[in-house]
Write a structure and sequence with these properties.
39% of the residues lie in helices and 22% in strands. The chain has five helices and six strands. The protein starts with 19 loop residues before the first strand and ends with a strand. InterPro entries: ArsR-like_HTH, HTH_ArsR_DNA-bd_dom, HTH_MetalResp_TranReg, WH-like_DNA-bd_sf, WH_DNA-bd_sf.
């Protein structure tokens, strides 16, 4: 008997060419840093950077409770670093959200809003050379990968 409801997703992780640029005077900067500050949230983000996943798949992969995973997913989603890309259904017919990383890479830099236009132009080409990192942290001329796909 074939299934009426999809139990798998066809969601993919897609990347944009234009990074979101966050500075110290941007309110979203604190949200992103706080959302990624916990080890569990960081591991969830890394997993989603590799492949779309449901909360139950994430919980199984990270040996965490589904409730704990939901807590971190809410924070990551409200910070804008992940999003719901699809819906699928469990074997019992329960609807499950499928999460992916946000399409835009994010550049966090330790500068002000006035520095943003020139910095964004400079890092647009830099981000494309690095492959699929989702978040970069920059301070002056020192740039490091904050979160990357492996």
């Amino acid at each position: 008997m074939s299934r009426i409801l999809p139990t798998r997703t066809d969601a993919t992780v897609e990347r944009s060419d234009t990074p979101a640029v966050l500075s110290l005077d941007d309110d979203r900067t604190r949200d992103v840093i706080e959302a990624l500050s916990s080890e569990t949230a960081y591991e969830i983000f890394r997993l989603l950077n590799e492949t779309p996943a449901t909360p139950s798949r994430i919980a199984t992969h990270l040996d965490q409770s589904v409730q704990n995973v939901h807590y971190h997913l809410e924070h990551l989603e409200s910070a804008g670093v992940i999003k719901v890309a699809d819906t699928c259904y469990s074997e019992k017919g329960r609807e499950m959200s499928v999460y992916v990383v946000s399409e835009d890479p994010t550049l966090l830099f330790l500068g002000t809003e006035d520095d943003r236009p020139s910095l964004k132009r400079a890092f647009k080409s830099f981000a494309s050379l690095l492959g699929p990192p989702s978040i970069l942290l920059a301070a002056g001329e020192c740039i490091s990968r904050f979160v990357t796909a492996e």
